[in-house]
């Protein structure tokens, strides 16, 4: 089983600042099948990034994904008020298709 | 518009069973793998189970293997999750999602709003 570790657990930033979130896998993620999701309280998750670096439909270009193999990064270039949420990475290259524990981005 | 609508959640006693359903509309259901993801109160997301578009291949998290059974009826555009021998730790919101397996590059691009399962005596 591929174990995903996300850091930091909580990121406290101000609107307009840059956020950098990390996701590390215990072994290589096949075909870079790594996705990032955003979840607000009481809502279903929303796909942001798939294939490590491709933005999903309708996602603003301030969100970007990078990385390969075992190290992946989600960057939010300038935080907007609606971006304060929890972010999860997921690998879907090999079963079981595991999630990371999440990074909470909150307002400083 | 693509929509996923879960149902079947509720309050059940430990050791009991439930069948969750996810009715799909707006896309060719049989073309896409599907997943179930759960979220316990105050916790993170946990991938639970997945199934190929044809239904021939199924996948499970170790935590549910042997107790959960995923299936689909492509003629009814509906995904199912049969849950038995329920435990308190199965208490969660259960989401169905389109994709999320290695058949597609696109991740889980559509999610339902979830159905709540509470296991308690």
Describe the structure.
Chain A is mainly beta. Chain A has no helices and ten strands. In chain A, the strands form two sheets. In chain A, strands 2-10-9-4-5-6 form a six-stranded mixed β-sheet, with no helix packed on it. In chain A, strands 1-3-8-7 form a four-stranded antiparallel β-sheet, with no helix packed on it. The mean pLDDT of chain A is 97. The radius of gyration of chain B is 13 Å and the shape is globular. The A-B interface holds A 1, 30-31, 33, 35, 37, 39, 44-47, 49-51, 54, 56-57, 86, 88, 90, 92-102 and B 35, 37, 44-47, 50, 59-62, 95, 99-102, 105-109, 111-114.
SSE topology string of chain A: EEEEEEEEEE
The gross shape of chain B turns out to be globular
| CA distance, first residue to last residue of chain A | 36 Å
Please give the radius of gyration of chain A in angstroms.
Answer: 13 Å
* CA-CA gap between termini of chain B: 40 Å
Structural class of chain B: mainly beta
Largest interface: A-B, 31 and 25 residues
Give the H and E element order of chain B. EEEEEEEEEEE
**Class based on secondary structure composition and strand pairing of chain A:** mainly beta
Percent range of helical residues of chain A = under 10%
> Could you list the spans of chain B in which at least 5 consecutive residues all have pLDDT below 50?
none
Brief characterization of the structure:
The complex is a heterodimer of chains A (108) and B (121). Chain A has strands spanning 4-7, 10-13, 19-25, 34-39, 46-50, 54-55, 63-68, 71-76, 86-91, 103-107.
Topology, please?
The complex is a heterodimer of chains A (108) and B (121).
Chain A: E1 4-7, E2 10-13, E3 19-25, E4 34-39, E5 46-50, E6 54-55, E7 63-68, E8 71-76, E9 86-91, E10 103-107
Parallel strand pairs in A: 2-10
Antiparallel strand pairs in A: 1-3, 3-8, 4-5, 4-9, 5-6, 7-8, 9-10
Chain B: E1 3-7, E2 10-12, E3 18-25, E4 34-39, E5 45-51, E6 58-60, E7 68-73, E8 78-83, E9 92-99, E10 108-111, E11 115-119
Parallel strand pairs in B: 2-11
Antiparallel strand pairs in B: 1-3, 3-8, 4-5, 4-9, 5-6, 7-8, 9-10, 9-11
């Amino acid at each position: 089983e591929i174990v995903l570790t996300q850091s930091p657990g909580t990121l406290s930033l101000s609107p307009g600042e840059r956020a950098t979130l990390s996701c590390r896998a215990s072994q290589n993620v096949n075909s870079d099948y790594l996705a990032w999701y955003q979840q607000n309280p009481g809502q279903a998750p929303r796909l942001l990034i798939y294939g490590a670096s491709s933005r999903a439909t309708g996602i603003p270009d301030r969100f970007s994904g990078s990385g390969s193999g075992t190290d992946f990064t989600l960057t939010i270039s300038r935080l907007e008020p609606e971006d304060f949420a929890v972010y999860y990475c997921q690998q879907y290259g090999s079963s079981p298709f595991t999630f990371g524990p999440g990074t909470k981005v909150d307002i400083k | 518009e693509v929509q996923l609508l879960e149902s079947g959640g509720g309050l059940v006693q430990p050791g009991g069973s439930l069948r969750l359903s996810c009715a799909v509309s707006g896309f060719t259901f049989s073309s896409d793998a599907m997943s179930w993801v759960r979220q316990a109160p105050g916790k993170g997301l946990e991938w639970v189970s997945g199934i190929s578009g044809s239904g021939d291949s199924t996948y499970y998290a170790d935590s549910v293997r042997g107790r959960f059974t995923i299936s689909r009826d492509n003629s009814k555009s509906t995904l199912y999750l049969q849950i038995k021998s329920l435990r308190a730790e199965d208490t969660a919101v259960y989401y169905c999602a389109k994709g999320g397996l290695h058949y597609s590059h696109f991740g889980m691009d559509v999610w339902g709003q979830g159905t709540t399962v509470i296991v308690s005596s």
